[in-house]
Amino acid sequence: MYKKLSALLSSFPILVCGVSATSASASQVMVVQNVNMISHRNSISFTGNVDPKFSDGDLRVLALDENNNKVYESEKLTLNRRGQFATEIKNLDQSKNYNLYVSCSYGEGSSKNTIFSPSIEASTLKIKTQVEFEGTDNVKIKILENNLPNEYYPLYLVLKLDGKVFKTAELPKRDNLVLNLTGLRENLNYTYDIVTKSENIEKVVDNGMFKTLQSDKNENQGSSNSKILYYTLTSDDINNSNIEDIKIDLNLNDDIKKFAIGVTDFKSNIEGLDIKFLNGKLTVSNLVPSKKYSDLKIYFDSKDGNRIVLNVAPFKTLQETSDINNFVRSVYFNSLNRNPDEKGFKFWIDSLSSGKVSFENFVINLLSEEEFLTLRSTTESKIEGLYKVIVNRESDNEGLRYWVSKYDTIVSKGCSNEFALRVVAETMVNENEFKNIVKNLKGSLKKIA
After folding, report:
1. How far apart are CA 144 and CA 175, in angstroms?
2. Predicted TM-score of the model (pTM)
3. Tens digit of pLDDT for each residue in 420-433?
4. How confident is the model at residue 399 (pLDDT cuts 50, 70, 90)?
5. Looking at per-residue confidence, does 31 or 17 come out higher?
6. Alpha-carbon span 341 to 184, nearest angstrom
């Protein structure tokens, strides 16, 4: 292996660590253990362990592409007492395979010796999409390439209009998949993200855009017997409705009740809501607690073929009635300075309640959002944000200094802000203070069960 790597490095204008691997002591063998890699579109977060005896050498990570060209060399790595290192390999191409090596050099000038670990296979995220057809109210998007490993699933296509989520579709793991998105509005620009929402990460792995066509038909064209009927549920209707933290039972007048009888398919302009007609009321579930709804619209087709559009007057849901609901909304507010969207809120509540996702990984997922870093420009503000998100309090002076120093040290090694944030957050969620919060939350879940 050493001769093979030496031959590869001999073609470089500047040899990594200065000499070929064959000049290193044959008695020294470097083995990288506990390898953990997180692939991104253009980078790979890489952690592992080597024998702590290598801490007195010049440790680096080298990345070679499929043509054995050097594409990245890290800054000097720092080992902790267990021999663990962390780095981020940057400026890579999406959908590419790479071979990684950990090198260690001793000495100076012509006496410098370098040894290398065996190669470690890695790759950036591999998914590519293409818009294949654009209609007035639908579009077809083809997955050209998808080599994402299982840990990146579930995978979603998130369709956005004017920057807001318009529709979400889960992607099955299948090659040459064609998605047919319907129910779109004509002559509008849409963007879409391919998002992984697995237990460990939540990242955008591909994106695109398209514009629906403009119809040359009259928008009211249709059956002579069908109409679009608009109704407004007024403030008085809301006052006579039953409002809870995640649900509202809308009071309907007799005309709307007549149209709603027998209907099972209700839609809304807000993704993720569950709407049913029960006991003469329209029950809207999966709302977010303590949130003001100012523009809720509900659509359904009556049995006589009419399209009914309900404009709902503004209302605000009640405060959370469960600890788990309060925890999820608090983490959203403290990390992203906003309420969760309805579909995301239900997803996390269900996942945490069932144990499919741990509380630690939920927090890490939210902190991986680009919004968190965008809202906080300084290291101090990032650490303050972590305190609010993880333990729901302000930092103390000693703790703030400690975590700021740890964060800055990681960044100084050439790692990105995203990687440094993740390392610090993963450490903080394993502290006793957060563990006690999780213990209490799990206790409240058992009481509910």
Report:
1. 7
2. 0.50
3. 998 999 999 999 99
4. very high
5. 31
6. 20
H or E, element range at 251: strand 247-251
CA 196 to CA 125: how far, in whole Å?
11
At residue 223, the pLDDT reads 43
Place of tokens 């001769």: 3
Q: Write the burial class of residue 214 (CB in 10 Å: 0-12 exposed, 13-18 middle, 19+ buried).
A: exposed
Pick from 27, 87, 81: which is nearest to 419 by CA? 87
DSSP of 70-131: EEEEPPPP---TT-EEEEEE-SPPTT-EEEEEEEEEESSGGG-EEEEPPPEEEE---EEEEE
Sign of CA dihedral 14, 17, 21, 22: positive
User: What span, in angstroms and rounded, lies between the C-alpha atoms of 282 and 291?
Assistant: 19
Domains of the chain in sequence order: 2-123 (2.60.40.10), 127-211 (2.60.40.10), 228-316 (2.60.40), 323-448 (1.10.3130.20)
AA letter at 35: V
102 backbone φψ class: left, alpha, beta (φ>0; ψ -120 to 50): beta
CA distances from 70 to 18, 100, 266, 353 (A): 14, 10, 56, 47
- Arithmetic mean of pLDDT, 275-299: 90
CB 124 within 8 A of CB 39: yes
Cβ atoms of 203 and 124 within 8 Å: the answer is no
Q: In the predicted model, is pLDDT for residue 2 greater than 70?
A: no
> What is the per-residue pLDDT for 297?
86
Segment 392-417 shows an average pLDDT of 91
Q: Is 411 helix (H, G, I), strand (E, B) or coil?
A: helix
Kindly tell me if the per-residue pLDDT of 14 is higher than 70: no
Cα(386)–Cα(93) distance, integer angstroms: 31
Helix, strand, coil percentages (3-state) for the chain, rounded to 5, are 30, 30, 40
Contact 428, 386 (CB under 8 A): yes
* Rounded CA separation 297/161 (Å): 16
Alpha carbon 384 to its chain centroid, in Å, reads 22
- The dihedral over CA atoms of 299, 183, 272, 251, expressed in degrees to the nearest 10, equals 0
Cα(205)–Cα(148) distance, integer angstroms: 10
CA distances from 79 to 56, 219, 256, 401, 413 (A): 9, 66, 68, 22, 12
For residue 338, give the 3-state DSSP assignment. Answer: coil
CB neighbours of residue 436 within 10 Å: 11
- Which tens digits make up the pLDDT trace of 158-191? 999 988 999 888 887 766 688 888 889 887 888 8
